[in-house]
Structure formats: structure tokens, C-alpha cells
Amino acid sequence: SEMCIRDRVQSAMQEGLSFVNPQLVSSLQFSAGGFxxxxxxxxxxxxxxxxxxxxxxxxxxxxSMLGAGMHLAGATKNNRLSLxxxxxxxxxxxxxxxxxxxxxxxxxxxxxxxxxxxxxSKKSSxxxxxxxxxxxxxxVPETRNTTFGSIQQTYSLRVFYDGNExxxxxxxxxxxxxxxxxxxxxxxxxxxxxxxxxxxxxxxxASAYWLDAISQVSAGNDTSINIGTGSSLEHARNSxxxxxYALEHRGSYFLPNSAWRWGLKTSYESIDDKLSEWRLLDSAxxxxxxxxxxxxxxxxxxxxxxxxxxxxxxxxxxSSLFFITAGELDLTLGARFSYWDFNNxxxxxxxxxxxxxxxxxxxxxxxxxxxx
Length: 372
Known about the structure:
372 residues, mainly beta, 14-stranded antiparallel β-sheet, two-stranded antiparallel sheet, 1 helix, 16 strands
């Protein structure tokens, strides 16, 4: 119905900050599909982010009507130890106050990231990455006024609310990476990571609505006729708790005009999802759906899903550069393997990309990709 506001999650009102903090990033690459075997099991999209490696002290501070942030970075004199950190705060009060549903919006989003890098020797180093993100979305709706229809026949919907919504989204992420480079050609990395998410969506909102038909009688004059009244009561106690633990190895071996890359990864996932929602809908003094004996709910949903599973992934690929008459030809061939014991799904996806940079224009590149 028009007066229901339970779809705020789907409309992205509660979404806050992305994981990527632009102040901490040195380079970023995005691919909407057709990427190499080293990225992802299914070819949807991929975001490759490289963090800065500071060599001297630096910092920044910014503030606006929608939030604030700062970052600090520095390194020791011999550059063996470096630190990169950033804090962000965001609020969307001013944007949400322009919506049809008027009320008290209290969205607050904040995150903190830190990356510590330490060189154990000329051939080995260790990095520690930590991230904490917290999102709060509180809403006390009051009224809603919406007009829709055509010039010949216009409808007006007025809604009055009572109750509130309180949502909480917290996530923690940490990773430790050890890198060993025995020679200029070979690099080996070992990574351990953990991710935790803790989410809650709670609301109890009562609403009453009036639907009027507005017809224009003469220029500058119109008439309003009430064609419907009703009310609803919405309730939700939803929660999601998830953990992901992963161990990964990545390696690369460089040859003249060629490079081999490979990787192995295993992860354990634990998800506990609890859903409890219902809505009571009343129209003209009768509960919908109608019953002479019982009070029936418009909808009711209660469930708990607990999933524990392991994933295993591996890939290998080769990139070669050829200098031909037309220009520089880059050919990448590889394959990716994955297994998920939750549904015993096995995926084997060969992939290949080829790109050509012609000599006659260095700003032009021809690109073709295929695979599964």
C-alpha cells in the first residue's frame, strides 16, 4: 500500500560509507566484467584497490554539511615502518529531510581504517590492515503527503505515523599479510583475514491514511472527495550475524615480457540470520484479509537460517607481451577453480583476455575478453 514505509532498506536509506577510503588509496581499477582469472569466481564486477605506501608524514582534514574526515600517514627515517590511517563520518539528514515521509531522521555512519607495514629485511615484510565500520539509522516518522494521478483525475494521500525504527550495522575486518621475495623474479605472499558483520533492523510503526480524489471544477477551483481510509501496524525484529575466516597464498614469477601468477585460498563462513516480521492492515474498520473468527495478518514471516560452510579456490594465469607490427599485444590466459561444500558446487572457469595498443595512437586500446 502507499502508506507502507517498510522498504527503506531496499531503497538504500540506511547505506552509509563504502569500504574504500579515497584518502588512503594510491590507485584503483574497476572492471564490470571480462576480468582475469585472479579475480573472483563469477564474472560480475571487480574492484582492485592499492593502498598508499607513505615515505614521510602527511595528513588532511575536511568537513562539510554531510560529514567530515581526516587521515594521517607517516614513516620512520629508514622507511622500514610506515603507518596509514583514516577516519570518516557521514550523515544524510539534509538529503532524507526532502523525502515524502516527514519525520526525525538520525542517520550516522563512521569508519576507521589503519594499515601498518614493516620491512623485516630486504626480502620480507609484514602488513596489518584493520577496519571498523558502524552505521546507525534511527527514524521517527510523522507524516506523509503524496499527490499522484493525471490532470483529469488527481489523488491525494495523507498518512500519519506513530512509532520508530532503529537499525544498527557494524562490521569488523582485519588481515595480516607476509610477503617474501627471494629474488627479483619471484614473490610469495601469505594472507590471513577475518571478517565479522553484526546487523539489526527493528521497527514498530503504526500508520493511518486518508485517500482523496481531487477533481478540477473550474479554473483555479477543485473539489476533494474521500474515497478510502485505513491503518496499519508494522513490526520487525531482524538480525544477521556473520563471520568469515580465510587463509590465502598468492605468488608471482616474472620473466622477460611474461609473468605467471597463481593463488590458493580456503575460507570458513558462519551466518546466523533471524527474521521476524508481521503487518496488520485495516481498511474501513475491517482487518485485511477478513475473517469472522480470527484477526488475520496481512503478512507474517518468521525464520532462522544458520549456514556453516567451507570454500576452496585456486587460480593460475600467464600474461605475455608481444611487440608486433600493429602495436603492443598483451595476451593473458588463465583458469580458476572453486568448490563450495554448502551445495557441493564445483566451478572451473577458463578465461582469456587480449588487448592491443596501436603505435599510431597511444590513447587507443582494443580489448577482448572471454571465459566463464
